[in-house]
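Batch manifest, entry 17 of 40.
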Amino acid sequence: MAKPSDFAILQVLPQLETGGVEQVVIELTEAVARTGARALVASLPGRLVPAVERAGGIHIPLDLKSRNPFRMGWNGDQLAKLIKKQKVSLIHAHSRAPAFAARAASMRREIPFVTTYHGAYNQRGLFKRRYNAVMASGNRVIAISRFIADLVRERHHVGDDRLRIVPGGVDPVKFDPETVNGGRIDRLARAWRLPDGGQTIMLPARLTSWKGQEVMIEALGRMRHRDVTLILLGSAQGRDAYAKSLAERARSHEVASRVLFAGDCADMPAAYKLADVVVNASTDPEAFGRTIVEAQAMRRLVIASDHGAARETIVDGETGWRVKPGDAAALAAALDAALDLPVEARIEMGHAGRAFVSTHYSIAAMQAGNLAVYHELLG
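Output type: structure tokens
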């Protein structure tokens, strides 16, 4: 009978930089290593390589990022060699370009191929439809929300024999408001030069147009509360023109002095605790929306666009609010209503949010769900 140490699980993704997909890879690495199996991750290096290694994994530098068909074919050859050398038992793809190479390598070496459908990828044009379809071609296809599961069924006609729903999870120890001390919060407040006594709204997302920063800035200009600072938490990742346009928009709405471009943050629990309200203003549906789940775990008030997985991760009016996507007036009204709440009501909603997340979106449940998929295929 095979022992856990006989198995090796290889996860593939473009690069180990910041992001929700990368965090899932780290969490799965820790879960695999805990079973006694070998946990391998192939990608371009990045700032999260040490996190993979601390989780018990082995990082293998490999450029799987290219969408060039010839390069993807070459990558398939490299992964096939790696599978043979490392005696890999199963390969798990988290992104489209690496998935093409992983599928080819898995077929050549006759090992199971798993995909996680992490996004509501746009389907404009025949090429994009075929490109997206690779994420529905695994022996098992993991959807990170019911919204994504429905999308995969409709787009790719994947049946329940292959489709599994495993929602993302949050570490209740890391994201626990009781463990974030005042010193951590003060350090961030000083670094960001936040005004004393004012209230803060936070939109944690990389600076890209579909994340809704433009809508959020317009909403700030429409709010009754004028003592509010907006923290745009996330880097431009090369989209400097978009970042510049956001600064210009803030000036045009006469809120430039109240908009802070904070870049990336290494201490997200403290950042959430510093915020009075955390917003997800995405104009396209979120596949999961990890930041809203994390913020609820931290007992923060949350507001999100009413589409995608937000309809699963927020109980409207009980753990937060959902508003019409792209509607700055509706967002402004919801923000004013949230900031008008008395302290007791804020505390009650915060406790409800953390209880909801603890019940439905624990990291342990996410890890167990993925390991169960591996077990199905490996026995």
